[in-house]
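lol forgot to send this yesterday, sorry. C-alpha cells for the thing we talked abt
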C-alpha cells in the first residue's frame, strides 16, 4: 500500500510539471516569435528542459519504488502469531490422538493384538503389544 501511495504522489508531481510546461508554451503564443519549446525555456536537441527534468524526476521515483520493493525489512507479528513464509499465522501446536505421547516430533501409539490359537481341545490366548508411530497434527 505504501508503494502505491508513493507512486501516485510521484505521478501527480510529474503530471503537474507537464501541465505547467504546457501552459507556459501556450502563453507565449504563436505570433510572438517564441520557439516551439516555449518562451524562457531552454532546449537541448529539440527537447524542452522541462521535459528532461520531468523525466529525471520520474526515473528517480521509479528507482525509489524498485528499491523499496526489494527491501528486507523485518515483519513484526502480533502476540500469539508466528511468521511463516512471509505471513503471520496463529501459533499452533503439534498434537497426537488420544493419550499417545509426542516424542521427538513423532506420535507413538500402542495397541494390543489378541491371538487365539488352539489345537485339539486346548486353546491359548496371547496378547501382543504393538507399537506404531505417526505424524502429529497441527491444532
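and heres what i got for the seq, position by position
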Amino acid at each position: 500500500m505504501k508503494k502505491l501511495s508513493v507512486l501516485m504522489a510521484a505521478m501527480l508531481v510529474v503530471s503537474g510539471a507537464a501541465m505547467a510546461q504546457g501552459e507556459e508554451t501556450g502563453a507565449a503564443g504563436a505570433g510572438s516569435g517564441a520557439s516551439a519549446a516555449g518562451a524562457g525555456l531552454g532546449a537541448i536537441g529539440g527537447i524542452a528542459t522541462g521535459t528532461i527534468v520531468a523525466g529525471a524526476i520520474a526515473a528517480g521515483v521509479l528507482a525509489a519504488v524498485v528499491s523499496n520493493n526489494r527491501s528486507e525489512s523485518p515483519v513484526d507479528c502480533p502476540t500469539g502469531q508466528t511468521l511463516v513464509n512471509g505471513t503471520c499465522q496463529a501459533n499452533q501446536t503439534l498434537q497426537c490422538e488420544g493419550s499417545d505421547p509426542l516424542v521427538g516430533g513423532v506420535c507413538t501409539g500402542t495397541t494390543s493384538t489378541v491371538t487365539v490359537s488352539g489345537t485339539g481341545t486346548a486353546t491359548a490366548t496371547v496378547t501382543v503389544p504393538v507399537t506404531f508411530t505417526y505424524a502429529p497434527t497441527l491444532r
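Helices lie at 2-28, 49-69. anyway ping me if u want another try
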